[in-house]
């Protein structure tokens, strides 16, 4: 991975967050949210710190991290490609779009390319069904896609 994420500085930030929420009820979610922002992911090393800091069992933390899509165990790529697999998009051929992206960048759904550039994700409905099928790259949204649009979109990044 190009960027170093497990720096002392980041762990110091995490400590601050833990101290801030330590004595509040329901501290886990806000701490995890901040951890995801600080590190770009919540891997086991980070979960362990949170577990010790908040006195919450690792198993519980792991369960939460793997349940909610906003948390990831591995660092995400510089660009996160989300292909909506909600009903409207699915019906309009989202699977073909995913297959084409996989082929173009050689990455499986849920994985990051070895150079750390792209992460491919399948998402739920993002509320743009009128534009189905839809894909997002970070904050950018592309709609009414056909398979052959994929290479041109990826080229921009
Ligand atoms: S189903 Fe894809 S945006 Fe709603």
Mind explaining what this structure looks like?
The chain folds into 2 domains: 8-67; 79-155, Glutaredoxin. The protein is built from 7 helices and 4 strands, in the order ααααβααβββα. It has helices at 8-21, 28-39, 44-54, 58-67, 87-91, 94-105, 150-155; strands at 79-84, 118-123, 135-137, 140-142. It has a 4-stranded mixed sheet, with helices on one face. Strand 3 and strand 4 (140-142) form a beta hairpin. FE2/S2 (inorganic) cluster (FES) binds next to helix 5.
Any descriptors?
157 residues, alpha+beta, Glutaredoxin, 2 domains, 7 helices, binds FE2/S2 (inorganic) cluster
Entry summary:
One of its GO terms (molecular function) is metal ion binding. This protein is of the alpha+beta class and 157 residues long.
C-alpha geometry: elongated
In CATH, the architecture of the largest domain is 3-Layer(aba) Sandwich
The helix/strand series, from N terminus to C terminus, equals HHHHEHHEEEH
Main structural class: alpha+beta
Low-confidence stretches: none
Percent of residues in beta strands?
A: 5-15%
Helical content (DSSP H or I, runs of 4+): 40-55%
Largest sheet: 4 strands, mixed
Query: Total number of helical segments?
Result: 7
Distance between the termini: 18 Å
Top CATH class of the largest domain: Alpha Beta
In total, how many beta strands?
4
Radius of gyration: 18 Å
Bound molecules: FE2/S2 (inorganic) cluster
The CATH homologous superfamily name of the largest domain equals Glutaredoxin
Q: Which fold name corresponds to the CATH topology of the largest domain? A: Glutaredoxin
Strand order of the largest sheet: 2-1-3-4
The mean pLDDT is 94
Total number of domains? 2
GO molecular function, one term: metal ion binding
Cofactor: [2Fe-2S] cluster
Pfam family, one: 2Fe-2S_thioredx
Family: Belongs to the complex I 24 kDa subunit family.
């Amino acid at each position: 991975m190009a960027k170093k994420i497990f720096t002392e500085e980041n762990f110091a930030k995490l400590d601050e967050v833990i101290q801030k929420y330590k004595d509040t009820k329901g501290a886990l979610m806000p701490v995890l949210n901040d951890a995801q922002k600080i590190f770009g992911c919540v891997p086991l090393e980070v979960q362990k710190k949170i577990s010790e800091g908040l006195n919450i069992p690792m198993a519980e933390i792991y369960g939460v991290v793997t349940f909610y899509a906003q948390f990831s165990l591995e660092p995400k790529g510089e660009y996160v490609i989300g292909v909506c697999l909600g009903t409207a998009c699915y019906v309009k051929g989202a699977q073909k779009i995913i297959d084409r992206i996989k082929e173009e960048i050689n990455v499986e759904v849920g994985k990051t390319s070895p150079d750390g550039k792209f992460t491919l994700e399948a998402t739920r409905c993002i509320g743009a069904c009128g534009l189905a099928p839809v894909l997002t790259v970070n904050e950018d949204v592309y709609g009414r896609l056909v398979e052959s649009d994929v290479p041109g979109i990826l080229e921009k990044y």
